[in-house]
């Protein structure tokens, strides 16, 4: 799950270093163009949506039989809901910026990311802890873990 934190970082860094005069900026110093940066952010959104879709359709239904935190209405699915509310806001913002790049605001972009950072990072940490071997042993046999659809 640290890969999501690793991917989230460039989105935050990207919005921190860009100024208003992005058209004349030194590209080597600043990294990708603004439109490439938007593509990266959209890739992050789509990757996370796909990841959560797989979890909710294939993995959580199996885990919820033994582990209540993975059931509908429980902490992991509720976290997904909060994360996706943030991703929806981010996607709308990026679409607006793509339509009119001059409206891009690093401050607004960063605020949007920050609005769901805590729920995202907490969820990643909790999910890793809940799926670690020592915790899984409390709920599942080794044979059951080996049959998980992963």
TrEMBL record:
This is Hemerythrin-like domain-containing protein. Residues 35-127 form the Hemerythrin-like domain. Pfam families: Hemerythrin (PF01814). It comes from Dacryopinax primogenitus (strain DJM 731). Coiled coil: none annotated.
């Amino acid at each position: 799950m640290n890969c999501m934190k690793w991917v989230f970082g460039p989105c935050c860094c990207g919005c921190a270093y860009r100024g208003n005069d992005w058209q004349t900026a030194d590209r080597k110093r600043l990294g990708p163009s603004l439109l490439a940066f938007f593509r990266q952010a959209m890739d992050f959104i789509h990757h996370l949506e796909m990841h959560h879709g797989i979890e909710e359709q294939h993995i959580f239904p199996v885990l919820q039989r033994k582990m209540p935190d993975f059931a509908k209405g429980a902490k992991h699915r509720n976290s997904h809901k909060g994360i996706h509310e943030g991703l929806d806001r981010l996607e709308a913002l990026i679409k607006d910026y793509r339509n009119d790049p001059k409206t891009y605001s690093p401050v607004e972009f960063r605020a949007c990311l920050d609005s769901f950072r805590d729920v995202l990072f907490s969820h990643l940490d909790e999910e890793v802890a809940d799926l670690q071997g020592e915790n899984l042993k409390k709920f599942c046999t080794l044979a059951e873990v080996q049959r998980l659809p992963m």
